[in-house]
Specification:
The longest helix is centred in the last third of the chain and has 31 residues, at 262-292. The protein has two domains: 3-223, Spore Coat Polysaccharide Biosynthesis Protein SpsA, Chain A; 226-375, no CATH class. The protein has helices spanning 16-29, 47-54, 66-76, 97-104, 114-117, 126-144, 160-164, 175-185, 210-223, 226-248, 262-292, 299-307, 310-337, 345-375, 384-411; strands spanning 3-9, 34-40, 57-60, 81-84, 109-113, 156-159, 190-194, 253-255, 258-260. The two termini are 57 Å apart. It has 15 helices and nine strands. α6 runs parallel beside α9 (210-223), α10 (226-248) packs antiparallel against α11 (262-292) and α11 (262-292) packs parallel to α14. Strands 3-2-1-4-6-5-7 form a seven-stranded mixed beta sheet. Strands 8-9 form a two-stranded antiparallel ribbon. This is Glycosyl transferase family 2. It comes from Thermobispora bispora (strain ATCC 19993 / DSM 43833 / CBS 139.67 / JCM 10125 / KCTC 9307 / NBRC 14880 / R51). The chain crosses the membrane at residues 228-248, 268-289, 310-336, 356-377.
Length: 412
């Protein structure tokens, strides 16, 4: 079978039969061997029977959520290609040939782009059209260098085997972003075709909740991009903190009538420490995600982990500790010169704050190196060859046992 059209469904009695009829009519018109699968997510309005009467195969998906319903339908699909689309009659299931042509040409994922194809009046709320979709799609392109201009288009086609290999896990509306992000990270062939969006045919409100689901999309994009979540903010904080700290290490700085002194130096120290911790979190996240398969292996991170050995980390941490200890000795000498009495904060803090910062970064470096070393411990993973070898050994043992029993019975 070449094509399966998958439609997630939750109480779509008003439109599901129309969508199924259009999809089946399209396949008949173009001579495509295919089917329509309605992934029902617990409808209580009779959508299931209406879909069956229209010619669809209905599969029940118990786990609630847009992503769970779609994955249930994709797993149940029999076609080589899958085109997914909402069952609310907002997408044109009679015009799927652009997707089919790209898939036949070798594409792994073909995304519809509503902004290029046309959005009918009233089909998309202004908040989604001018803020939500453009902003989230821009963030997705920026974070992951994705070629997709409409991250959240619900009409898309793909090779079933390619998408199943991605190991998609999210169960809600963020499933749309996860598919695009993981396909991009895995280097799949992603293409776009213009598609139209019409007002849906339902009389009830949509399942989508703008702010809640928008936040879930944004959260997913951030969590799958440690570079933008941790690394870049951390480097910016460190750079600003270091510039400020160096400028204030010899005395106050005045910009016009505005003066900066040791109070600002303390803030600069905090920025350096927080930024350094964020950079370390970026490394932790990339290593862990790569080892667990959430993100693909990054050669740059792997080289960095190979360079940051436990011994080197301990050495760098030790050097920072020595620098901090030297600063504390200098502060004690300064205190001694004042007869171990009351100190002038503007003078003493210029020695104490950098020293304490060096000590904190020393501890961070040592602990981080130990943690990365733990993350880098490779677990032995059973391969297909190992499984086959084990099965062969078990079969040989079973045959030997049967032969032994048979031999004993003949002797008796």
């Amino acid at each position: 079978m070449e094509l399966t059209v998958v439609m997630p469904c939750l109480n779509e009695a008003e439109t599901v039969a129309t969508c199924v009829t259009k999809a089946i009519g399209f396949m008949r018109e173009h001579g495509i061997n295919g089917e329509v699968v309605v992934a029902d997510n617990g409808s209580t309005d009779g959508s299931q029977q209406l879909a069956r009467d229209a010619g669809a195969r209905v599969v029940h998906v118990e786990e609630k959520g847009y992503g769970n319903a779609l994955m249930g339908g994709i797993r149940a699909a029999r076609g080589k290609y899958v085109i997914m689309g909402d069952a609310d009659d907002s997408y044109d299931f009679t015009n799927l040939m652009p997707f089919i042509k790209e898939l036949r040409d070798g594409a792994d994922l073909v995304m519809g782009n509503r902004f290029k194809g046309g959005i009918a009046p009233g089909a998309m709320p202004p908040l989604h059209r001018y803020l939500g979709n453009p902003v989230l799609s821009f963030i997705g392109r920026l974070f992951f260098n994705s070629p997709v201009g409409d991250f959240h288009c619900g009409l898309r086609g793909f090779r079933r085997d390619s998408i199943l290999r991605l190991g998609l896990q999210t169960g809600g509306m963020e499933f749309a972003s996860e598919m695009v992000v993981k396909a991009t990270l895995q280097g799949l062939d992603i293409r776009e075709v213009p598609t139209t969006l019409s007002p849906d045919g339902r009389s009830r409100p949509p399942h989508l909740r703008s702010w809640r689901d928008g936040w879930r999309h944004l959260r997913f994009l951030l969590l799958y991009s440690p570079r933008w979540l941790f690394l870049i903010p951390g480097l910016v904080l460190m750079a600003i903190g270091l510039i400020m700290g160096i400028a204030l290490s010899t005395g106050p700085v005045f910009i016009g009538e505005l003066g900066f002194d040791v109070d600002t130096l303390v803030g600069a120290s905090a920025m350096v420490v927080i930024g350094y911790q964020a950079v370390l979190f970026a490394i932790f996240t990339k290593v862990y995600a790569a080892e667990e398969g959430f993100l693909p292996q990054d050669k740059r991170v792997r080289r960095l982990v190979d360079v940051i050995t436990l011994e080197r980390g301990l050495l760098v941490g030790g050097l920072l500790a020595v620098a901090g200890f030297g600063g504390l000795i200098a502060s004690l000498v300064h205190w001694g010169e004042r007869g171990f009495g009351e100190l002038i904060p503007a003078e003493s803090l210029r020695l104490v704050v950098p020293s304490a910062t060096a000590f904190m970064m020393s501890c961070q470096t040592i602990f981080a190196t130990l943690f990365v070393s733990i993350l880098g411990i490779r677990r032995s993973k059973e391969t297909a060859v190992d499984v086959a070898a084990s099965a062969a050994e078990e079969a040989a043992e079973a045959v030997a046992r049967d032969s032994s029993v048979a031999g004993t019975a003949q002797s008796a």
